[in-house]
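My current task is to audit a protein record that another person submitted. What it holds is a sequence and that sequence's fold in token form. Thanks in advance; the entry in question is below.
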Amino acid sequence: MYKSYESTRCSDLRTRASDAVLRGIADDGGLYVMRELEHKKIDVEKLQYKSYIDMAEIILAEMLDDFSAEKIKECTAKAYTNKFSTDEITPVVKAGQVYVTELFHGPTSAFKDVALSILPHLMTASYEMNGIDEEVAVLVATSGDTGKAALEGFRDVKGTKIAVFYPDGGVSQVQKAQMETQEGSNTYVCAIRGNFDDAQTGVKKIFTDTALAKELKENNKMFSSANSINIGRLVPQIVYYFFSYVKLIESKEIAMGDKVNFVVPTGNFGNILAGYYAKLLGLPVNKLICASNENNVLYDFIRTGIYDRNRQFYKTISPSMDILVSSNLERLLYYMSGKNNEYVKSLMEQLNSAGRYEVSNEMKDKINSEFYAACIFKNETEITIKETFERHDYLLDTHTAVAYRALENYRRETKDDTVAVVLSTASPYKFSGSVYEALYGADNRDEFEIMEELSKRTGVAVPENLKGLNKKKIRHTDVCEIDEMKDYVREKLIRRNYD
């Protein structure tokens, strides 16, 4: 089978799609990318009136090209049948003059469910296809939503253990409760005394630790990732871009071939990168609008061509976007540089050593032709939540509100009235305290009490998976320093047998 994936940092490090899913990250620390991606095409016309699952089968078959049609069909059925609160999986609704794709109808009420419901099945299929009998140790760094979605996806999956690291004090009360109460004999959760970037950097260091790799091998185990650095996490996210577009055609909001703008609240750059992949696959995308909060490193990069993480880190009301090192940007650099692995490697070395890099003017112009950047701070986010509910009876969470306001700013600045879709990444009830404050003012009650009050006052139902979450048994209370993450992984995932 042709090895269609390679490391962003070395064209000689090539492998098959299934092996890339298993490994998560390349041996040199690079991310797996498909070199000939632009030669793959999805016929949008043939997607009309297909279900989400049928559409996923078609798109995943193109991207995961060593999986059989039967394997893809099996994985998609297991991932999406009776797992979401709507058969559409990611329904498209209208809020004012904006279309909203709701990505939060899965088992943890966040967009990560769409990919993390299928990743464990893709991984299981991958180690069967590759004749692997090693146990897979899955490592995850989370800014809030990925952690719970990954834990739920991998819970009691045969041949796996999963450890999730999240920033202590850097997630919402609901997000923390979701992780602390996670069930499963193979799940481990640990808060770190640091921010998300510290957690993500720590996980990457563990992946490339040669002594730990040797210890893994001796214990018949291998590392993998459930973050969007894993191509198996990224690829399923492409589907909802196509699904959104087709839904607009079916409802006669656009005609086949019309271009559409997509607006994405962005932290680690995975969600919006899936939109760029969709465009490369033939989806008529006009502009991808990258919406940032106060941690606006991506805003500055798209506007100036300079990526600089050497800045103050802010804890915001949209915590899943509180990120200064956007891992998936490396994949975009690969394509924007003309697949120049050595150039990408040099940029990543500069980022690691100096905390910054600057791309060429040619690359900056290319990026600006595809992306627009907006930066929305707390006050505007709160105003947007309030105005959108009062005017359109639609309740936004604190991340989707960033994207909603970013679109308003984009339209005002560019006068572009192209039909636009905002990706709604989470239920407002995952951040009920902040949403309530935006609507009705500050409230010092417990966030779960506020959740019930918010539902009463807005008439918007609380998702079933969040009801009674505060009454569930707390199972995970571990906390560690950043430099203790490796020891935690060694103890929980390498040396410990199943209870």
